[in-house]
Design goal:
Blueprint lengths: L3 E3 L11 H6 L2 H10 L7 E4 L8 H16 L5 H4 L11 H8 L4 H13 L3 H8 L3 H13 L6 H11 L3 H13 L9 H13 L3 H13 L6 H13 L3 H13 L6 H13 L3 H13 L6 H14 L4 H13 L3 H13 L6 H13 L3 H13 L6 H13 L3 H13 L6 H13 L3 H13 L6 H13 L3 H13 L6 H13 L3 H13 L6 H13 L3 H13 L6 H13 L3 H13 L6 H13 L3 H10 L1
Antiparallel strand pairs: 1-2
Helix pairs in contact: 2-6, 3-5, 7-8, 7-9, 9-10, 9-11, 10-11, 11-12, 11-13, 12-13, 13-14, 13-15, 15-16, 15-17, 18-19, 18-20, 19-20, 20-21, 20-22, 21-22, 22-23, 22-24, 23-24, 24-25, 24-26, 25-26, 26-27, 26-28, 28-29, 28-30, 29-30, 30-31, 30-32, 32-33, 34-35
Length: 614
C-alpha cells in the first residue's frame, strides 16, 4: 500500500510538556498522540492512501489550503466561512495532506473540522433519511472527525419519533461516546424522553442519576420529563419526591410539570391538593392551560366540596383563557350551591368580559357588585380601563381614571401603562410620553412593560431617535431592557429592509446578556429571507427550534417561498409538511406551489387535497 508521511522537526515538540499536553482539548491530544512522535523519525500520516479528488473537489481543497496558508495568523472560523457550506467529510484528508508540512496549521484545521456542524449531515437528518445519515456518521468517524454533539442530538431526536427509532437512538447513545462524542444535558433529555415514551420510566430515572456522575447537570426539562412519565403511570409519591429534589437544586417546575401533577391528583380524587398546586402555579406566574382548568373542574364536580376560593380560581382561569361562557357557568353553579361570589370573583369576570370586548356587559356587572355592597378595588378598575382602551374609548378610560381618584383609588403603574399603550397605538406619542412623566412624578415604579410600550410606540411612529434616547436613558438608570425592547427596533429596521442594522441590534442585545425570544427569531428569519440570506435564515431557524421556540405562519411562509425560489424543493417541502402537521395554515400562494408540484408528479389525490385546503 502506498503510504504518505508527515515529518515534524524535533524542536517543535519542546512546546508540549506532559502537563500542557493534558490541558489540550481531547481531539488535539488524540491527534498528537496518534500522529506525532517525540523523536526525529517520521511517522505515517494515515494508514491508508486516500482516493484522488475529482476536479471540483481539487479546486475547493486548493482554495481552502491557500486561504489557510496565506492567513495563518487569523482565526480559521473567519477564514473558512466562505467554504463552510461546500466542505464535506471527505475533503478533510485532502486538505490535511496539502498542509501537512506545517504542524500548527494541521492541528488548527483539525480542530476547526471537529467543532463544525456538517450541513450535509443535518440535511439528511432533517429530510428523514436516517439510514443515509447513519452511514455518513460512520464515514465521518472513520475519517477521524469528532462529530459535534449538536449534530448527534439532531440525529437521535429524529430517531426517537417511533419505537424502532428509539431502539436505534438508545444504541447510538450507548456507542457514540466510544468514538469521542461527549453527550450534553440536551442529549440526556432526548433519551430520557424516549425512555418515558415507551414506559421505561425507571431507566429514565437511573439515567438522570448517571448524568451527574458523568458531569452533566440535569435541568428543569430533565426533571419535568421524568415527572410527566411517573404521572402517566400514576406514581404520585415518586412525583412528589422528584419535586422535592427540584426545589433543593433551585429548579422551578415548568407548566408541563404542574399540569401533569394537577391531572394526576384529580384522577386520584385528591382535588384539594390539586387546588393547592393550582394556586402555587398561579402565584409563580405560570398560566395553566384550559385542559388543567377543565380537569380540575371535573374533579371538583366528582370528588370535591368546592368553596368560594376554589370556584374563583377556576373562574379566573377560564377568564384568562377567554372562555367567558364556561366562567359564567361556574358562577351560576356557585349561586346554586348558596355560595356568594366576592370582589375577586367579579373582577375575574369583568376582566374576561373586557378581553372579549364586552365592555358594556362588564360595566353592568360592576353595577351589580355595587348593589350587592361589594367595593371595587384597583384590579377591577384596571380591568375596565383595559377594556375601554381596547375598544378605542380612550376618553372614557381617562374619565374612569379620574373617577378612581374620586373614589379614593390612585391609578398604579398598570393603569398608566394600559392608557399609554392606547395612546401609542393611536400615534399620540406626546400624550404617551407625558404619562411616563406622571408615573415618575408620582413616585410610581414603572415596569419593563411600561418602557416597552413606549419604545414600541416610538418605533411604530418612525421616531427611532426618540427610541434610542429612551434606551440610553434606561441603561443609564440601570433598567435592563429585555428582548421585547430590542425587538421594536429590529422590526422597524427589518421593515425598512436594513438587515445590517437589524443584525447589529441583535448582536448588541446578545452582548448585553439579553437572550432572544420567539419574536426576535421570527424577525431575523423573515428579514434574512427577504434579503436572500438563506444561510443566515436557516441558521436562526435551527437555533430557534433548538431552544423550543415556534415559528409563526409568516416565518414559515417566508422560508418556504425562499427555498422554492432557489429550487431547494426538498427543504421547502419538509417545512411545508411540518407547518401542515401543526395548527398553522400556509397562504394561498404556497398551496398553489405544492399543488402544481404534486400535479406534475402525477399525485392527483394529494393535489386535490391541497386544492381543497385553500
Amino acid at each position: 500500500m502506498k503510504r504518505h508521511v508527515i515529518s515534524f522537526p524535533r524542536h517543535c515538540f519542546q512546546l508540549f510538556s506532559y502537563h500542557s499536553l493534558n490541558r489540550l482539548p481531547f481531539f488535539r491530544r488524540c491527534f498528537i498522540e496518534k500522529n506525532c512522535s517525540f523523536d526525529s523519525t517520521t511517522r505515517n500520516f494515515l494508514n491508508y492512501s486516500p482516493k484522488k479528488p475529482i476536479l471540483q473537489d481539487s479546486e475547493l481543497v486548493h482554495q481552502i489550503s491557500i486561504a489557510i496558508k496565506q492567513h495563518h495568523s487569523e482565526p480559521l472560523r473567519r477564514i473558512l466561512k466562505p467554504y463552510e457550506s461546500k466542505f464535506r467529510a471527505n475533503h478533510l484528508i485532502w486538505v490535511l495532506m496539502s498542509i501537512r508540512n506545517d504542524y500548527r496549521l494541521v492541528l488548527n484545521f483539525f480542530e476547526w473540522a471537529c467543532q463544525r456542524r456538517d450541513p450535509s449531515l443535518e440535511v439528511l437528518v432533517e429530510a428523514g433519511m436516517l439510514n443515509e445519515a447513519r452511514k455518513l456518521f460512520d464515514k465521518m468517524l472513520n475519517y477521524g472527525l469528532l462529530i459535534s454533539v449538536e449534530s448527534c442530538n439532531l440525529f437521535i431526536s429524529h430517531l426517537s419519533k417511533d419505537l424502532d427509532g428509539i431502539k436505534v437512538a438508545l444504541k447510538v447513545f450507548s456507542e457514540f461516546p466510544e468514538v469521542g462524542v461527549c453527550w450534553n444535558t440536551a442529549s440526556y433529555n432526548i433519551i430520557i424522553h424516549s425512555l418515558c415514551q415507551i414506559g421505561r420510566v425507571v431507566e429514565a430515572l437511573q439515567l438522570l442519576l448517571q448524568m451527574v456522575l458523568r458531569g452533566c447537570m440535569p435541568d428543569v426539562v430533565s426533571y419535568s420529563t421524568i415527572t410527566s412519565g411517573y404521572c402517566q403511570v400514576g406514581e404520585l409519591q415518586k412525583v412528589l419526591k422528584l419535586l422535592e429534589e427540584m426545589q433543593v437544586k433551585g429548579l422551578k417546575p415548568n407548566p408541563f410539570t404542574y399540569n401533569g401533577i394537577i391531572l394526576l391528583l384529580c384522577k386520584t380524587g385528591k382535588v384539594a391538593e390539586a387546588e393547592r398546586v393550582l394556586r402555587e402555579m398561579i402565584s409563580e406566574g405560570i398560566a395553566p392551560d384550559s385542559v388543567v382548568y377543565t380537569t380540575l373542574n371535573d374533579g371538583v364536580c366528582k370528588f370535591g366540596n368546592p368553596d368560594e376560593v376554589t370556584y374563583t380560581a377556576l373562574i379566573d382561569g377560564y377568564c384568562k383563557e377567554v372562555k367567558v361562557k364556561e366562567a359564567f357557568s361556574l358562577h351560576n353553579k356557585m349561586l346554586e350551591m348558596g355560595l356568594t361570589p366576592n370582589v375577586v370573583t367579579y373582577t375575574a369576570l369583568t376582566d374576561g368580559l373586557c378581553k372579549c370586548g364586552e365592555v358594556d356587559t362588564a360595566n353592568e356587572l360592576l353595577h351589580e357588585m355595587c348593589r350587592k355592597g361589594l367595593e371595587l378595588n384597583i384590579y377591577t378598575y384596571n380591568s375596565l380601563v383595559n377594556g375601554l382602551c381596547k375598544a378605542g374609548n380612550i376618553d372614557q378610560a381617562v374619565k374612569l381614571m379620574k373617577d378612581m381618584e374620586v373614589a379614593g383609588f390612585h391609578p398604579d403603574a398598570i393603569t398608566y401603562t394600559t392608557l399609554m399603550d392606547a395612546y401609542c397605538k393611536s400615534r399620540e406619542m406626546d400624550k404617551a410620553h407625558e404619562l411616563l412623566r406622571q408615573i415618575l412624578d408620582r413616585g410610581l415604579q414603572p415596569t419593563i412593560v411600561t418602557f416597552n410600550v413606549l419604545m414600541n410606540g416610538f418605533c411604530m411612529s418612525g421616531m427611532l431617535q426618540d427610541g434610542e434616547k429612551l434606551l440610553k436613558w434606561m441603561l443609564e438608570k440601570g433598567i435592563m431592557p429585555n428582548a421585547s425592547t430590542y425587538n421594536s427596533f429590529m422590526n422597524q429596521y427589518f421593515i425598512r429592509n436594513n438587515m445590517h442594522a437589524t443584525t447589529e441590534i441583535y448582536k448588541g442585545m446578545c452582548g448585553k446578556g439579553v437572550g432572544p425570544d420567539a419574536n426576535t427569531y421570527n424577525i431575523l428569519i423573515k428579514g434574512h429571507c427577504k434579503a436572500r440570506n438563506m444561510k443566515e435564515a436557516w441558521f436562526f431557524h435551527k437555533d430557534m427550534v433548538g431552544k423550543g421556540f415556534s415559528l409563526t405562519t409568516s416565518s414559515y411562509n417566508a422560508l418556504i417561498k425562499s427555498f422554492y425560489k432557489r429550487k431547494k424543493f426538498s427543504e421547502a417541502n419538509q417545512l411545508f409538511e411540518k407547518m401542515r402537521s401543526g395548527v398553522l395554515v400556509a397562504d394561498r400562494e404556497i398551496y398553489n406551489i405544492f399543488a402544481d408540484i404534486n400535479y406534475d408528479e402525477g399525485k392527483m389525490e394529494l393535489t386535490l387535497e391541497l386544492c381543497d385546503k385553500q
